[in-house]
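Mods, move this if it's the wrong board.
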Amino acid sequence: MFDTKATGYNILATPYKQDVAKLFAEACQRQGLALGWQFSPKDWKHPDFNTENHDRYNAYYLQLLDELSANYGPIAVMWFDGVEPIGKDKWKDVPAKAAEMMYSRHPNLLVGTHGAMKEDFISFEIGVGPFDRQKPWETAEGINPSGWIFNKPIPAFPFRDLLRTMIYTISRDGNYLLDVGPMPDGTLYPPDAERLGDFAAFMKTNAEAVHGTRGGPYRDGAWGSATCKGNSVYLWVSDQVGEHLTLPALPAKILKASRLDGQPLTWKTDRKRLLLHFPDRKPGANPVFICVKIDLDKPAYGLPILDGQVNELATAAVKASAIKENNVEKYVTAGLFDNLGETAWETPKTDTLCTLEFDLGKLTTLTALSLAEKGQIEGWNHGCEIRLKTRASTSAEWQQVIRHQGAIGAPPILQFAATSARFVKLEIRKRPGFELQLAELRVFGSIK
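Not the wrong board. Structure tokens:
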């Protein structure tokens, strides 16, 4: 897709005969946008790729990266597309050489995962990652089910689903990357353009709660989530909330609270609670999120992290089916509850059924589940099967309340009919060959 001397198989050999990468880079510079490239290390059509002559392919690969990093101006992001199934024996020191070359030209470059080099940020595809203020991360998803390119006319995902992914991503301190593939003539498929129009309309009202914000101080749940900036906290209240919402009190003085859409809101606070009232609002009402701005007398980012909804599993006794390498210090289940994305419960590659059983100590009302991975490793799997089961006593049968097939964290909140239980079992079925890396597990009760 760019003018390269490494091969004649490039865009200048097509009827288009223009360097579209150069045109794109120049357009980004005109509009004041940071430039990022997505690059696949694997060229399956190259005659030396994954052969006994892979060293020659490595030289070809480095030449491509050399040209891309030298000829198109400042680069902010390099987003790689995976090196698997080719092993280190063939890639050798090429990833390290590639990183050194790119950083030498672009010192502020951010390198993503899947390039076999030390990443600057973690990238999740489809699923929303865990709350993590320490390691930069993003969630990437396509605007429609066709994948990362335009390959056939297909309806865009519903706006409410895309918006939900964005809101929960930014509220966990991540960046949201929405992929839109142009049609062969360079224009956008009309349903995709319409969906971008939905985002534009949403941002007219809510942009200040999105751009330049950080996640927290409230942790998300079925109730919604929170971002913050300066002396302001922004509450993203979901459509599961009716007229009333109760959250833990912030350890700061509230100077003002108002809805960004200008609609009515009343509130009060005491030493323990923040109580919000939305007149005449019913659960399930549109829009899917409303945003409440809370102005404080101190910076919001420095406030402690608070649970918007209690995680009923956080203090429960737990039993794991297995732990990777039996290393209870490094891969312990406590990593599920520490608000750190880099710690996780991990299982052996060979395990295909991974389970956690919890004893809550008493009957508790449960309504929703939230899971997030530590990070998507090479060879990660979109197709886990997640089952959540509950029972009221040891003599009762397990009752399945969730059965979900797909990527962990997609969607970020899985809701189910309210059930009363003392015991909870999570089952995750996966293919052998990769570790389960579960960084976050939360089960919620009812919204207050």
